[in-house]
Amino acid sequence: MSENPLLGPSLEDLRTRTSMKWSLYPQDVLPLWVAEMDVTLAPAVTEAIVRAARTGDTGYPFGTAYAEAVAAFASDRWGWSGLDPARTAQVPDVMMGIVEALRLLTRPGDAVLVTSPVYAPFFAFVTRAERQIVETSLTDGGRLDPAAIEDGLLRARAAGSDRPVVLLSNPHNPTGTVHTRAELEAVAEVARRHGARIISDEIHAPLVYSGAAFVPLLSVAGAENAFALTSGSKAFNLAGLKAALLMAGPEAAADLARLPEEVSHGPSHVGILAHTAGFESSRGWLDQLLSGLEDNRDLLGRLLEEHLPQVTWRPPQATYLAWLDASALGLSAPASADALAVVSDLAGPAKFFLDEARVALSSGHVFGRGGGDAVRLNFATRPEILSDAVQRMGRAAAQR
Fold first, then answer.
1. 126 alpha-carbon distance from chain centroid
2. 8 A C-beta contact, residue 244 and residue 92
3. Fewer CB within 10 Å: C terminus or N terminus of the chain?
4. Do residues 267 and 61 touch, judged by C-beta distance below 8 A?
5. Are residues 74 and 202 in contact, defined by beta-carbon separation less than 8 angstroms?
6. Quick check: pTM over 0.85?
7. DSSP H helical ranges for 194-332
8. Each residue's pLDDT tens digit in the chain (400 positions)?
9. Are 220 and 171 in contact (CB under 8 A)?
10. 3-state DSSP call for residue 87?
């Protein structure tokens, strides 16, 4: 068997899985939507899970081994030695950690700026936490736009929000853009100047390709009062084993100290063991995965050029997600499409490709402003599944 983790499970194996990706749609649908990978787990992760079951080590979580593993990983992979386990807290997952950080920094009704199109659950979780979404846009090149963020903060202040937060996706989901240090410093400067705090979702940080370099927000000048969150759930395919890490900059330590104790009861002990094994003992496996994902990203580019040239994209610098502009197909989601819809809700081109090609993609409209003509495609699968899916999409588009 190849060392590429993407070549482990066959299509028949994958169809026996009971998680959301492979269960929501009928078996004639190729699911390239929700952010689950079609991989075999890293051996060290499997061993950690099996050892816990074999020894009955399935109680309550304790200790800072998870934070220590992430700190060592950050030093090794990103050259950042500033992650202090004492300024971290274990939380159930990244989105719940974001909500808890918002409760520390804001009051109900305060503004939370997002840079659309952006990870769809930002909208639902922020709104259900009784905070107000303020959308700002990326540049035409898909980069962070400090001027647009400043305009959003001014609008938030004018609307009476005195504790605004800038919520970043770093690397950016769905575009796969890796923010540069200069871009993050510019956003941090704007936030400081307007009395705003930053929370950075860094769940995809380990999944950065050659030619780009991940910059942790908390390593950036001006972000000393920020929060960041990470997890092994994307890099090591552990979404079903709940565990994430909330990290505070040195000036946010007092805020972190106010985190309710019961929040730390949410993560799974077995999840923490698995995530720790990923960061601590699975770097070789991750390197093989990244090589396979980069091959799939390049394959996707060739497939689109050959079978679906109407669709345009920027190859992502990170993540295993491709943001595809299908506006040339004239299938835009209606203006009434709800950006707060659940991620399985479909409209526009995603609905077309499901109905006519039997390929499930994420609908762009749930990612906010600028997503009505787009779809998000998950290319973390076997190359032949990816090829079949794009060929199906191309045939469907040609028959319109």
1. 16
2. yes
3. N
4. yes
5. no
6. yes
7. 253-257, 269-281, 283-307
8. 458 999 999 999 999 999 999 999 999 999 999 999 999 999 999 999 999 999 999 999 999 999 999 999 999 999 999 999 999 999 999 999 999 999 999 999 999 999 999 999 999 999 999 999 999 999 999 999 999 999 999 999 999 999 999 999 999 999 999 999 999 999 999 999 999 999 999 999 999 999 999 999 999 999 999 999 999 999 999 999 999 999 999 999 999 999 999 999 999 999 999 999 999 999 999 999 999 999 999 999 999 999 999 999 999 999 999 999 999 999 987 655 565 666 667 889 999 999 999 999 999 999 999 999 999 999 999 999 999 999 999 999 999 8
9. no
10. helix
Name the token pair of 397.
């588009």
E strand intervals along 123-183: 132-137, 165-169
Distance (Å, rounded) from C-alpha 333 to C-alpha 347?
5
DSSP class of residue 198 equals E
- Sign for the pseudo-dihedral over CA of 85, 86, 88, 91: positive
Provide the residue type at 211 as one letter. Answer: G
Strand 165-169 vs strand 111-116: parallel, antiparallel, or unpaired? parallel
Could you tell me if 376 and 174 are in contact, meaning their C-beta atoms sit under 8 angstroms apart?
Answer: yes
Burial of 349 (0-12, 13-18, 19+ CB in 10 A): buried
- What one-letter code names the amino acid at 184? L
Q: What does the alpha-carbon distance between residue 15 and residue 381 come to, in Å, rounded to a whole number?
A: 13
Residue 259: how many other CB atoms lie within 10 Å: 18
- Find where tokens 């390929």 sit: 359
Which residues are within 8 A (CB) of 20 and not within 5 positions of it... i.e. 6 or more apart?
34, 36
Tokens of 322: 């491709």
Region of 50 on the Ramachandran plot (φ > 0 left; ψ -120 to 50 alpha; else beta) = alpha
Copy the structure tokens of residue 307: 């079978």
